[in-house]
Every structure is written in C-alpha cells, then in structure tokens.
Amino acid sequence: MSVRVSSGFTASRLFWLLHSTVWLWLSLGARGCSCVSTGRVNGRYAGFLAPQPRPGAVRSTPLMGAIAGIQPTGDLHIGNYIGCIHPAVQYQNDGGQLVFMVADLHATTGDEPVVDLGRQSLSTVATLLACGVDPERTSVILQSQFPEILELNWILGTAVSLGRLRKLANFAKRVVAQESDSVGQCLYPLLMAADVLCSDSDTIIAGDDQACHVGLIREVANKLNRRISQPVVKVPERYHNGGFRVLSLDGAEKMSKSNSKEASRIHLTDDDEAIFTKLRAAKTASDHDLAAPEIANLVRLMRFFSGGFVDETDGCGRPELQFSELKSRLHEAVSSHLRPIRTRYLELMQNDAMLKAVLQSGRRRQQPVFSAVVEVRRSGRRIHGAQRVKRASNYCHVN
C-alpha cells in the first residue's frame, strides 16, 4: 500500500513533480551558461558552469596586461630602472601582456627643447631591450604614432575643469601653475590620462609620486562614463609594484633626468669608472645617522642591486656603518648589474633598422586596440564578446 500525503498525491508522484520542478529551475538558471568541465569534487563528479556574458554586460575581471611609459628625454638612470623598467620586465617574464610606450609627446612639454627626439627615442628603445624587454612578447610603441591618443585627449578635456588641471601642473611641485607655464605643462596630466584610457587599462602601475595623476585619470573616466550613462572607458586601479622612490645622489629630491647636475644620477649606460666617481661623491651624513634620507637611499640601492641583506654595522657589531665601505660595495653591485646592460645597449645602437622594426611591429599589434577604444567612445557604447578587442593594461610612467 502506498503512503499518501495530505494533498492526495502519492509520495512517488510528489517526488517526480519536485524533481521536474528543480530540473526546470536549474535549466532556466543555467541559461547563458555552459558546462566547461567535469571533475571529481570530494569524491563526487561535478560539472562546473562558466557564466557567459549577457548582451550589454561589461567585463568586471581584469585581463592580464600592462603598459609602461617612459620619456625619451635623455639617458635612462637607475631610478627609471627600479621604478618602472625592472618591474615591467618581471611582469613580462611572469607571462603578462606588456606594452612599453616611448612617450615622445610628453617629452616636448618641458622647458628645454629635446635635441634630435627621433634619435633619443631609438636610444630609449635600445635601453629597454638591453634591460630585458623582449619584442617578441612585448609591444614597444611610439606615442606619436597613435593619433587616437590625441583624439581621446581632446574628449577628456571636456570632462575636467581648468582649475583641477592647474593644481596638478608641474607634477604638483606648486599648488597652482604660474602664468609663465605653457599650456602643454598644464595639459600634461590630461595627456597621461589619454594614454591610459586609450589603452583600455584595468590597472596603472605607478609610484607614489604619480598618485595625484592616477586620481585625475579615475576622475575623468568616471565623469565620461556618467555623461554617456554607461561605462565606455575603464576606471583603472593603481597597482603597487613593490618598487621604491630613488633619491638623487645628493639626497635632495627624486632622481631625475631633468636635474642639471650630472653627478646626481647613475645612468644605465655609465661605465664602471663613472659609477665609482658618482658614488664616491654621493652625499652622506657626517653624524652616521642611518635614518638620514641620503643614507637610507644608498642602503636601499645596495639591497636592490645585491639582492640581499645589508649589514648596517662596521663588521664588529657596532651600529656604525662605514660609508666608504658601503659606497665601495654599492659600486661593485651596481657595476656588476649594469655591465651587461651597457654592453647590449651599445650593440643595439649599431642597428637602427632593427630598432625601427621593433616600433613598427609594436604599432601593428596595438593599433587595433587603440582604435577600438576610440571607436567605442564615438558610438557611445562598449563592444562585447568576440567584437571587443581583448586587451587590458596597466600603466607606469616616469620622467
């Protein structure tokens, strides 16, 4: 005799009714999904459903990609290397998609004219390759070869106030730009935003000194998306690459190519003698204060180039670091690290045709990406699925 429930259905009929209902619910819930694999979970077989993008949906998970930018305004130095080039090469070697932008347009915004910008750009490309950038895996591009950047730059200009730009002018060294500053200096942060947003960036690799510029990029991206009422450009996040801010050898400010004192920086192409001379003249505190900025800077450099622990004693357990010994050891570590880079750089500079071919290859690979972002902005909507050029990137810019 079958057992009956209060509704009058038999238990077996109720079971099959519930079973059919659950199956129908799962089928409807899985619409737009596909079973991509089957495996054992805790001893049982299970199917894993991967949701497929619905029409109008915007991807929220970042793709693996990075873009780094550097100005061809002179010989690159160890500050550029530690803050941008080395992290980018590590990113590349870890399997990330990397784009390296030689920012020749940015190089024209300074007070001093850049002599032979074309030659300087090729020199920058040679330095990047000598440091480990692989043109087979990484796209090395020239900023001026992408007119889409300037088009987006104009569009972004409608989304930010002049007062906001004035506060960001000259890398925030002054609260408000002066009357003598050029328009290019005021618009520099906006052009940087166009670099990032035109590359469809998910993330920006940047140091602490670029925090205000990253904030502006996010600000104009949000304003542009609100104006269209849908996300047409990414709102990138800042990525901390683990580098540190390298001070000049006199400890006064950040190591920079724009510093008039040649001895304030170590170039990646300096020979052993030049490195020794610059380090010997590096400023050190007379009172053996290890917390002094110029001393802490040398210790950090020693840790980076030696790849290990730095003993901050005199070898007898006394907490007095012998600065002459530190400089000697640092010279050995830096020279050993930069020697193969310098050798490779000199070889590459003998082959202009190859360096130009690297830029041409990068342009061919990245032109569809930059064009797609601007086209999306023109149409006021994102491209999804197979139509969308799948490219995410981070940004690192140094001067």
Automatic annotation (TrEMBL):
The GO biological-process annotations, alphabetized, read as:
tryptophanyl-tRNA aminoacylation
Q: Any idea of its EC number? A: 6.1.1.2
User: By what name is this protein known?
Assistant: tryptophan--tRNA ligase
Q: Name one GO molecular function term.
A: ATP binding
Database matches in PANTHER family: TRYPTOPHAN--TRNA LIGASE, MITOCHONDRIAL
UniProt superkingdom? Eukaryota
Tell me the NCBIfam families matching this sequence. Answer: trpS (TIGR00233)
Q: What InterPro entries does UniProt report for this protein, alphabetically?
A: aa-tRNA-synth_I_CS (IPR001412), aa-tRNA-synth_Ic (IPR002305), Rossmann-like_a/b/a_fold (IPR014729), Trp-tRNA-ligase (IPR002306), Trp-tRNA_synthetase (IPR050203)
One Gene Ontology cellular component term attached to this UniProt record is: mitochondrion
Q: Which organism is it from?
A: Babesia bigemina
Secretion signal, residue range per the UniProt entry: 1-32
Gene3D superfamilies the record matches = HUPs, Tyrosyl-Transfer RNA Synthetase
Similarity annotation:
Belongs to the class-I aminoacyl-tRNA synthetase family.
Keywords assigned = Aminoacyl-tRNA synthetase, ATP-binding, Ligase, Nucleotide-binding, Protein biosynthesis, Signal
Q: Does the keyword Ligase apply?
A: yes
